[in-house]
């Protein structure tokens, strides 16, 4: 799929039709990273993962785990300022962060080569332009506060059943 | 013979060009930030940084040449240095493409520069002397690291952030508190009316002594604000700033002393923070180490530092050829 597919004018929000696959609890950033590592080992080229959650919920922590699960030894640092960082393991990991971009009218991803069959693309702060990712059948991970300050509720969701089967191994 | 070098920096948000002479004197330095661009264009369709660089780089070039007393026809420059990485690939490409075109057109050497080495060379702008070995704290929105500069061109990264950069933590906390962008200067402003000892925010533990972690402290502030809605924003800003500055200064001093450095340098956007400058200067004085603080405008991303690093590379390693390519993940 080319990135121009993202330019589609479909405004339907993925969010409205999300089906829950699995919900897990994490009691620390370290545990969130371990969950990411499990997920990373299930990912392959062409996968798109969207991370939805407020500041400090563990979006970068889960991505650093995904990298480990994909056999990447390099440390994952926050991509907020450079917006995109890439790493190479079993597949290319593209770690993208839209925090600093006004996404309300969508983002022009053309020419950025963020999505292809050999890459796993993880996007943080895509909350306001979720509709742009519809054609990728993304795995959408929702983060919420847990019982105490350090714990989180992490919900894996999707808008069709592409991911459900893969999570049987989770 | 002034031997002028033009430096071009487009690795992140700012389109920054500068002209520097052989004594490291900045003849002109022009910086167009994307914040300005967005307001000038009346809130354009949001897109990633490269188009914004494209939109202004020629205008910035004309201004920087004019302010240096040069013009595009007769040129008068001796070389062109450009940031080749690290940064956002599309943004870097704009700078590199313009640098190549100017180098070809004016028939002057082209030099690719590592952005981080540029920050180190900011310390030698305006005729400042650097004494080695020097421990340099490079701290900005995108980077936080302590580099041991053994001599020019010889670097050792003693420690770096494991997650968020310090400037990023400032920005995110500022936005969460409803302050403006960029967050560092906003927090600094609000903090002047707050009590830095009001709240004790935790300092992250890391395995390696000179590494940093600012994700935890950022989350701690967010949690604190959530559970204490009535708290004084001034106190939170002052306490948060104090805790970040304390960590930066303590680790830099520790690194400098334990690796036998004779001086300390500060560079990067957060290097413009007054409290950090003041504390580092004081700590250096206690330890008997010289502290080099570039002017605030030379701490943030700028073209002059790229020109300055470019001169060193040109004299030491020669010019690059037109195969020069961007390296988004370039290390120091």
Itemize the secondary structure elements and their pairings:
The complex is a heterodimer of chains A (170) and B (332).
Chain A: E1 19-26, H1 29-42, E2 48-52, H2 59-69, E3 84-88, E4 92-97, E5 119-124, E6 139-145, E7 152-158
Parallel strand pairs in A: 2-5, 2-6, 4-5
Antiparallel strand pairs in A: 1-7, 3-4, 6-7
Helix pairs in contact in A: 1-2
Chain B: E1 5-9, E2 15-20, E3 26-32, H1 34-40, H2 49-67, E4 79-85, H3 89-106, E5 110-114, H4 115-121, E6 134-139, E7 144-151, E8 154-160, H5 166-176, H6 183-191, H7 215-227, H8 233-258, E9 263-267, H9 274-287, E10 290-292, H10 296-299, H11 303-317
Parallel strand pairs in B: 1-4, 4-5, 6-9, 9-10
Antiparallel strand pairs in B: 1-2, 2-3, 6-7, 7-8
Please write the CATH class name of the largest domain in chain B. Answer: Alpha Beta
Report how far apart the termini of chain B are: 32 Å
CATH topology descriptor of chain A: Rossmann fold
Q: N-to-C SSE series of chain A?
A: EHEHEEEEE
CATH-assigned fold name of the largest domain in chain B? Nucleotidyltransferase, domain 5
- The number of helical runs of chain A is 2
């Amino acid at each position: 799929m080319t990135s121009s597919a993202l330019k589609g004018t479909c405004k339907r929000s993925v969010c409205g039709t999300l089906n829950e696959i699995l919900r897990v609890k994490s009691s620390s950033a370290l545990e969130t990273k371990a969950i990411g590592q499990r997920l990373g080992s299930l990912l392959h080229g062409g996968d798109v993962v969207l991370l939805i959650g407020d500041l400090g919920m563990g979006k970068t922590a889960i991505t650093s785990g995904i990298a480990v699960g994909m056999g990447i030894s390099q440390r994952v640092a926050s991509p907020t300022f450079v917006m995109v960082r890439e790493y190479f393991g079993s597949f290319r990991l593209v770690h993208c962060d839209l925090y600093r971009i006004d996404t309300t009218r969508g983002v022009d991803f053309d020419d950025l080569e963020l999505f292809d069959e050999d890459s796993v693309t993880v996007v943080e702060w895509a909350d306001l332009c979720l509709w742009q990712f519809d054609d990728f059948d993304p795995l959408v991970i929702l983060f919420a506060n847990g019982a105490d300050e350090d714990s989180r509720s992490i919900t894996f969701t999707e808008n069709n059943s592409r991911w459900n089967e893969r999570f049987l191994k989770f | 013979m002034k031997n002028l070098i033009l430096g071009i920096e487009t690795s992140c948000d700012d389109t920054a060009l500068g002209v520097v002479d052989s004594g490291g004197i900045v003849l002109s330095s022009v910086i167009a930030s994307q914040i300005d661009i967005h307001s000038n264009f009346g809130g354009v369709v949001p897109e990633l940084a490269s188009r914004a660089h494209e939109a202004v780089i020629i205008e910035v070039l004309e201004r920087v040449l004019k302010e240096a007393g040069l013009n595009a026809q007769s040129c008068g420059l001796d070389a062109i240095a450009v940031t080749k990485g690290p940064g956002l690939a599309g943004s870097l490409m704009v700078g590199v493409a313009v640098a190549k075109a100017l180098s070809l057109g004016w028939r002057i050497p082209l030099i690719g520069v590592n952005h981080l080495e540029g920050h180190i060379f900011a310390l030698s702008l305006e005729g400042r002397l650097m004494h080695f070995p020097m421990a340099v704290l490079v701290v900005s929105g995108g980077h936080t690291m302590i580099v041991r500069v053994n001599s020019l061109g010889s670097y050792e990264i003693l420690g770096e952030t494991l997650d968020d950069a310090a400037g990023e933590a400032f920005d995110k906390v500022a936005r969460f508190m409803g302050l403006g962008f960029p967050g560092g200067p906003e927090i600094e402003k609000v903090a002047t009316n707050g009590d830095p000892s009001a709240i004790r925010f935790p300092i992250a533990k890391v395995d390696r002594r000179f590494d940093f972690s600012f994700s935890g402290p950022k989350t701690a502030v967010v949690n604190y604000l959530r559970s204490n809605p009535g708290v004084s924003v001034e106190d939170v800003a002052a306490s948060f700033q104090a805790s970040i500055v304390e960590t930066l200064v303590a680790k830099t001093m520790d690194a400098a002393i334990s690796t036998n450095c004779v001086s300390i340098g500060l560079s990067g956007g957060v290097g413009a923070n007054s409290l950090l400058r003041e504390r580092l200067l004081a700590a250096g004085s206690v330890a008997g180490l010289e502290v080099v603080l570039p002017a605030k405008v030379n701490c943030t991303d700028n073209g002059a530092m790229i020109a300055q690093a470019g001169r060193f590379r040109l004299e030491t390693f020669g010019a690059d050829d037109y195969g020069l390519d961007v390296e988004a993940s370039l290390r120091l």
